[in-house]
Amino acid sequence: MLFDEMSHRDVVTWTAMITGYNSCNHHGRAWSMFCEMLRYGTRSNEFTLSAVLKTCKGLSALLCGKLVHGLAIKNGTQGSCIYVDNALMDVYATCCSSMDSARMVFESILNKNAVSWTTLITGYTHRGDAYGGLRAFRQMLLEEGELCPFSFSIAVRACASTGLVNLGKQVHAAVINHGFESNLPVMNSILDMYFKSCSACEAKQLFFEISQKDTITWNTLIAGFETLDPKQSFCIFSQMVSEGFSPDCFTFTSVVGACGKLAFLYCGQQLHGGIFRRGLNNNLVLSNALIDMYGKCGNITDSHKIFSQMPCKNVVSWTSMMIGYGAHGHGKEATKLFNEMVRSGIKPNTIVFMAVLSACSHAGLVDEGLRYFRLMTRFYNVAPNQEIYGCVVDLLGRAGRVKEAYQLIENMPFKPDESIWVVLLGACKAHKQRSIGKLAASRVLEMKPNEAGTYALLSNFFAAEGNWTGVAYLRKLMRGIKNKKEAGMSWIELKNQV
Predict the structure, then answer these.
(1) Which residues fall in a coiled-coil region (predicted)?
(2) Is 497 helix (H, G, I), strand (E, B) or coil?
(3) What pLDDT does residue 481 have?
(4) CA torsion 17→19→21→26, rounded to 10°?
């Protein structure tokens, strides 16, 4: 309103409006303001161009970015203003299909600053080219470029995506060598990297070396152990609370997830009480975690209670509830939920179809499951992957329709993996389909020749059909394999004891 009332507007006024709209994520209005400014004949400066390039990035509008680039060359701004050059790099890195244009702008910058290097590293890393990001990071160190914590954090993230702990250790060493070990966000990212590289010992050691921890540090440790060692998540959670840190939604989501993995219902109920006391019970992500936890702990009633009380639901909410119903054999409830979800306007994705197909499989709803499989490709245009085909093979196999399951595997658009043949083998064992079972067994053996579990599986198949010669031969082969099959474990919660 104030802008509209102004009789005279200079470039600072227009730039302030463009920047303001960007800050409020009204990128379309920011672009319209820039076009209006040009129509009024106001000449843009470097601050205007860097602001409008952020607009182009926000709109993911490569063509607009190119137009602004042309204007920057015409004005003589490109190559003489680092802010414009960095913003141009960011647009090309975000909107282009490759990093070639961003790299070209980067190479043309005479005096690169920390933002230039960070933008280049980020561009490679965010598009999934971790090694490209790490090469740019190495180049920055070799050329003694201006360093900042952000460039190290992005390089650590690139290492995490590769899963190679040795690369991560090298970047960790570079962090220490350049004096960033006291920067908490950098150390938090290294902590996360060690967990993603399955190096829990290194992560725990680093955690104890960090003198000033924040909630993110604790959350990273708890979330990391949720996957690698769920029991540790509980211990760390208790330690966090005892040291005076207040758990947030992220903390509770990880610990509730650990409860679900261990089926600790009593602990899960206590955590639910803590969530309610802190007023976090309406958090969407946390509610989804509670639905999943109660389902895994055998309490499908409480899962449905939380689900029905949620003020708003996303696709994860519906999927978690379907998976819970499927695991408890309530196939019809899962299919009803699927139909209700579609009516609510949410489009099902691959994971939703996996949930409903698995539910149909456990409940013996074969024709219903096959109908959803056809709907998936013909109506929703969702391409089935290996896991979906595995669900359908399981659906047919459990119902004794082993030949149909085998024909489905043969007609798959890609080569079936070991898990699909294992599902078929289990169906052959259950329904005494000897010929197809032998074929499935040979395929499993081809794909996993050095796994003790494979031989144990095949041995059980031969034992089920009374082929004791085959059992003895496989047991003999197993003794020659170095790795051993892990012993199975199960547990039960009784009177607050596991």
Answers:
(1) none
(2) strand
(3) 67
(4) 140
2 belongs to a structural domain: yes
CATH number at residue 396: 1.25.40
User: For residue 457, which of 431, 491, 427 has the smallest C-alpha distance?
Assistant: 427
**What is the distance of C-alpha 94 from the center of its chain?**
20
Positions of the chain with pLDDT under 50: none
Half-sphere exposure for 62 (CA within 13 Å, toward CB): 9
Number of independent structural domains in the chain: 3
Cα distance between residue 122 and residue 196, in whole Å: 19
391: nearest Cα among 360, 430, 429, 436: 360
Establish if 378 belongs to a structural domain: no
**CA–CA separation, 166 and 89 (whole Å):** 30
Q: At residue 494, what are phi and psi to the nearest 5 degrees?
A: -140, 115
| Residue 99 and residue 6 in one domain | yes
Task: With H, G, I as helix, E, B as strand and everything else as coil, classify residue 494.
Answer: strand
End-to-end CA distance of the chain: 66
* Residue 310 CA: distances (Å) to CA of 229, 292, 328: 30, 14, 22
CA distance 271 to 256: 7
One-letter amino acid identity for 233? Answer: S
DSSP string, 199-235: -HHHHHHHHHH-SS--HHHHHHHHHHHHHH-HHHHHH
Last residue of a domain, one of 190, 212, 234: 212
7-31 in b/e form (b: 16+ CB < 10 A) is eeeeeeebbbbbbebbeeeebebbb
Provide the pLDDT for residue 476: 74
Is 89 within 8 Å of 119 (Cβ atoms)?
A: yes
Would the pTM count as exceeding 0.90? no
Distances (CA, A) of 95 to 71, 158, 248, 355: 18, 20, 35, 34
Residues contacting 280, CB < 8 A, separation 6+: 248, 249, 252, 286
Contact (CB, 8 A) for 180 and 171: no
Cα–Cα dist 398/40, whole Å = 72
Provide the domain limits for residue 97.
1-109
The whole-angstrom separation of Cα 137 and Cα 148 is: 11
User: What span, in angstroms and rounded, lies between the C-alpha atoms of 258 and 293?
Assistant: 8
CA distance 240 to 245: 6
- Does any domain span residue 356? no
